Amino acid sequence: MDDTPSTSRMDDVNMDQDDPDVHAPSTSSSAFGQAETGKGEKDGEKPKENLFECNICLDSPNDPVVSLCGHLFCWPCLHGWLEMRPEGHQTCPVCKAAISREKAIPLFGRHSKGEDPRNKAVPPRPQAQRTEQTRHANFNHNPDFTPFGFGGGNNGFHMTVGFGAFPFTFFAQTFGLLEAAPGHAQQGLVSKIFLWVAIILIFALIFIDL
Amino acid sequence: MSAPNMAFNRIQRELAEVAKASDAEKGIVSLEAKDGRLDHLTGVIKGPPSSPYEGGTYVLDIKIPPEYPFKPPEVKFATKVWHPNVSSVTGAICLDILRTNWAAAMTLRTVMISIQALLGSPVADDPQDAVVASQFKTNRSLFDSTAKYWATTYADAPSEVPEMKEKVAQMVAMGFNESDVRDTLSWSGWDVAKALEKLAPE
């Protein structure tokens, strides 16, 4: 394979710059300086490498991740370190701040390849966190009006039924109208339990009437 | 076998870094692979200034586990040291970063600097050698001169401790092995009668 795969991708962008290392993340001024001094050391030394070395293998990072305390690692290296420690006692190898798999943030440079790190022997680095904009919980419906059995838009299933509503909820459940949201196995279990409770109550009502 | 490879790559980088850095004034003299093997190294540090170890040259025996740097290196003194946190018999070192407080970002360079710092500031409450630690607590001046005597004898420190040298010579003249005499006299607080009792119990 090609030793410098990024070079071909760089060609159309950096026609006039013959140093493929220019795309290293750095401020524009230092990148400029590097472009000037970097000529002729394409393969050998990278003058900036010590700024972005993995804190564990001391090499330039492979699948870089950064801890919340700001320390840079290869994901395989950090994973190896986390594996050695019991969960809950995992500390940053540099500053000993609390750290965990969930708190490591992957870094994607501009020219990072779209390769899936999961193809490697080490588990994938953690996913990037994209927190959705917060929405108002009751944006779509009036919280005061909760139709029998159908209530609670956010929670999927509310047990707000009175006696009179039983047959209705019962049928609704039986015919899958109140199907729990996909992936919410727990809610499925809950609705099954309520189904049995409803059946027992109905029988109880019948026998009380008799 | 990716783990030992990683250990070896890192050791190579660390060796280059120590060779490049000007740590000489900080007390690291050298770090070398033993017989070209990257899992067994020899480090040399200087005794810290204004301590009984000043001017001494201490050799450290460093073994690299295959899990390095996820597990700490095994470091002990190859040079005999009189210090509360170093075994006077085996050279084993009691230092938290070599055990539970190890972190993968530490290097052999930082370990050697820490060991040098430990020489300069003993922690008697967490002893490796109980005899030395109790002497350090109860008779500080005797501790200092014993440490100095050991530094002179084993680590080529320039200072002399004539009265201890005399006692050793006196007992060697009685036919005892010199290093046994040094150890026994040190362990019995330089009490010749006590040392004699231990060396020749009758």
UniProtKB/TrEMBL annotation, chain A:
Keywords: Membrane, Metal-binding, Transferase, Transmembrane, Transmembrane helix, Ubl conjugation pathway, Zinc, Zinc-finger. One of its GO terms (biological process) is ubiquitin-dependent protein catabolic process. It is found in: Endomembrane system. It catalyses: S-ubiquitinyl-[E2 ubiquitin-conjugating enzyme]-L-cysteine + [acceptor protein]-L-lysine = [E2 ubiquitin-conjugating enzyme]-L-cysteine + N(6)-ubiquitinyl-[acceptor protein]-L-lysine. Residues 128-138 have a biased composition (Polar residues). Residues 1-46, 109-138 are annotated as: Disordered. One of its GO terms (cellular component) is endoplasmic reticulum. Its EC number is 2.3.2.27. GO terms for molecular function: ubiquitin protein ligase activity; zinc ion binding. SMART domains: RING. The keyword Plastid does not apply. It comes from the Eukaryota. InterPro entries: RNF5/RNF185-like, Znf_C3HC4_RING-type, Znf_RING, Znf_RING/FYVE/PHD, Znf_RING_CS. The chain crosses the membrane at residues 156-177, 189-208. Residues 54-96 form the RING-type domain. Pathway: Protein modification; protein ubiquitination. This is RING-type E3 ubiquitin transferase. It comes from Ramazzottius varieornatus (Water bear).
From TrEMBL, chain B:
Keywords: ATP-binding, Nucleotide-binding, Transferase, Ubl conjugation pathway. Residues 163-202 form the UBA domain. The keyword Magnesium does not apply. The keyword Zinc-finger does not apply. Signal peptide: none annotated. InterPro entries: UBA, UBA-like_sf, UBC, UBQ-conjugating_AS, UBQ-conjugating_enzyme/RWD. The active site is at 94 (glycyl thioester intermediate). It holds the Pfam family UQ_con. Residues 6-156 form the UBC core domain. GO terms for molecular function: ATP binding; transferase activity. PANTHER family: UBIQUITIN-CONJUGATING ENZYME E2. Belongs to the ubiquitin-conjugating enzyme family. This is Uncharacterized protein. It comes from Ramazzottius varieornatus.
